[in-house]
Amino acid sequence: MRDIPEGDTATSLSTGTLARRLGVSPTTLRSWDRRYGIGPAVRTDGRHRRWTPPDIAVLETMCRLTSAGVPPAEAARAARASASPQASGGPTPPRAPEPAAGPTPSRAAGSLPLGDVRQECRGLARAAVRLDAPAVEERLAAAVATHGLAVAWQEVMVPTLHAVGRKWASSGDRYVEVEHLLSWHMSTALRRCTRPPARHGDTPGPGPVVLACVPGEQHTLALEALNAGLTELGLPTRMFGAAVPAEALTAAVERLGPAAVVLWAQARSTASLPLARHLAGTQWGVKGARRRALVMLGGAGWFGRPGQGMLRPTAFQDALDTLAGLYGAESPQSPGSPRRERAFSRGPGPA
User: Fold this and answer.
1) CA 149 to CA 221: how far, in whole Å?
2) Model confidence over 131-158: pLDDT tens digits?
3) DSSP assignment, residue 155?
């Protein structure tokens, strides 16, 4: 055991302090030390870990690489290899590899049950579990830039949020903070993809698409994704968001004369078939040429509920294609992939 250099003594950190600084748990730091040798070069007389600036630099590299989806063992080798050259002014640490082109088997990412997903999901999950907001933002922006909105939503955002929801449901309300952080930054990423609403007169079709959650429903992410996809095509939308009162939604439909109404219900307890039927039967226009809106039901809350005459798309792309078709528009097709299923009918997060 070597002595701590005098210059490092004042700047060395305890494990708890460093964990808070990096956004990881003290248990994670101890595990990395034990498994991969990513630990402090020195310890105090009481065998307590004291992390010096060179140690911290290695850990920062480790965090950066794992947040990009690099497996921990590989990230540890790269972080250790970067230590000596970096200290002597040599080459910078290796960059994280480019995202994989398709789904790859996932190792445990921050202990979340991801399964067979794209590599980007692993990095996004690890960043979320660490509550590393900057890394979450970077991963989401990179997914949208690389794959486009539809694929980023269906194959990166939704699988990761499902994994967080499963972990929450099985761990007694733990990981709630992870889901809230991830949801917030996903919403931010989707808003950045959302173009200003098109004016009704600038587009063909009978009226805008109305998107709303049923009364009592707070989950809006799937509607935000659909709204972003529709505005990307230049189509008119009116987004009303969470828990819209039935009277207000009815009044909006009567005033707007929409081409379609998309109703989201994540939970069965919030799915109101009487409201959906009422909106489907609402008419407007002059006598002899009255019209009705197409009603589309989204979310797991509608499963097993009879909704005759109303559409229930099972995938995000299907919903986008159907709504775009009302205006004679074509939506960008996502590449063939086994992960295209139920990203709209089920939606993100726990039901």
Assistant:
1) 13
2) 889 999 999 999 999 989 998 998 899 9
3) I
